[in-house]
Amino acid sequence: MTALELDLREGWVDPELAAEFPELSLAWAPLEAAPGPSSRSVKRRLRTLADRYTGAKVIHMRQDQVPWAYRVFSRQVGIDPDTTRTPVEQVALDRLTWGGLRSRNRVDDALTIAIAETGVPVIALDGDLVGSSLGLRLAASGERLGGGRPLATGQIVVADEERAVAVVLGEIAEDAGVTPGTRRMVIAALGVKGVPRISVEEALWTCGETLLGDD
Amino acid sequence: MPEVLEQHRVLTPVTRPDERAARRTLLDQVARLETELSQLFCSTWPRKGFDWGVPSRGGPRILGMAELEELRDELAERVHHARRALSDRTWSEEQSRQLIEEMLLEPERHKWIRVANEDIGEPGCKHWHVRPRLGFIGMLAGWWRVVISSGCPLATSHP
After folding, report:
1. Which of A79, A146, A168, B128 is least crowded, fewest Cβ atoms below 10 Å from its Cβ?
2. A65 to chain B: which residues are within 8 Å by CB?
3. With contact defined as beta carbons under 8 Å apart, do B82 and B37 qualify?
4. Nearest chain B CA: its distance from A86 CA (Å)
5. Nearest to residue B86, comparing CAs of B141, B21, B42?
């Protein structure tokens, strides 16, 4: 395996959003990686990760520092985390529902591994379809998610210089997400109050390593 | 990236500067209540029948002051109800534990009584059941005993 060199960048945050949530952050990194099937080592890693989950561990997960921090953030921004699960709780719930962490493809598996390992939500975008600068801001009146559905005014979104590319802790714009034709990616991780910076960076490193790992 | 942020200046601020301290307090209260709710959720496991729902506010977005107050109040009410329900449930479970002890000491005074694991707040299908030895003969002779089940039934296929 070649040593991974990740160009970690700090996303900008709208001043109003930063005033409300002073520790809100978006770390992101461009990555020369294409989607494809998962390697055996990735599938093995998913199986190993799945073995760590037990019913009791999943129940008590919401008291762990990082998952708890995202639950609190969800509440504070008007999401019910028991209905719209935080990514790490969704991974845990899927594990209990399916009896394992199902392998789908390299990108989804890398995101699952990063989220399960660190508890930090990570998303992947098509590097050729997003701009050179990502950040967090509130959706403007009449704005759309990418070129798709309309956004509610004031929704918290991940955006590039021109448009919203994802809803925070939510969906990704169809015309910004990774497709089979993607040649370069951007991976981004959300940081909130209570989550150590090192966990956010570790999430990106874990995701990057998995995406660039040997077949 | 100031130039990026400049493009989105058309937004009217959701919060006013003088609200900041009050909003900070409300956000902290929401965080504290969410912590209490999470602790209660873990304490109640594996019991069922508790209501944890606090409706979504159509997020993610910055909530207004009134919405934050409403959210805080609903969380506080939910914590209060959950704590009370857990207290009631643990009292009832303690009664069931005492009943099991009495059943074991004097089975003939608790004929046919059945206490399940669920009644004492434990997971699994185990139950204590006062039944007569040797069926009908035991009933007539007053030979009562507590039978402890061996666990959950095996899954069976449905036609």
Report:
1. A146
2. none
3. yes
4. 12
5. B42
A133/B1 Cβ within 8 A: yes
Chain-chain contact of A14 with B5 (C-beta, under 8 angstroms)? yes
State whether B14 and A138 contact (CB < 8 Å): yes
- Model-level pTM? 0.85
Chain-chain contact of B56 with A80 (C-beta, under 8 angstroms) = yes
- In terms of Cβ atoms closer than 10 Å to its own Cβ (0-12, 13-18, 19+), residue B6 is exposed
CA distances A174 to A33, A144, A145, A177, Å, are: 19, 11, 8, 6
Total CB pairs under 8 A between chain A and B: 120
Alpha helix positions (H), A65-157 = 65-76, 87-98, 106-118
Asked whether residue A94 is assigned to any structural domain, the reply reads yes
Residue A57 falls inside a structural domain:
yes
| pLDDT score recorded for residue A57 | 87
CB–CB contact B4 A135 (8 Å): yes
| Pick from A78, A152, A161: CB nearest B56 | A78
Range of the domain at A139: 9-212
Pair B26, A78: CB distance under 8 Å: no
**Domain for residue A1, yes or no?**
no
Which residues have a Cβ under 8 Å from the Cβ of B87 and sit 6 or more positions away?
Answer: none
CATH label of the domain that carries residue A152: 3.50.40.10
ipTM: 0.89
How do residues B4-52 score in pLDDT, each as one tens digit? 555 555 555 666 667 889 999 999 999 999 999 999 999 988 888 888 8
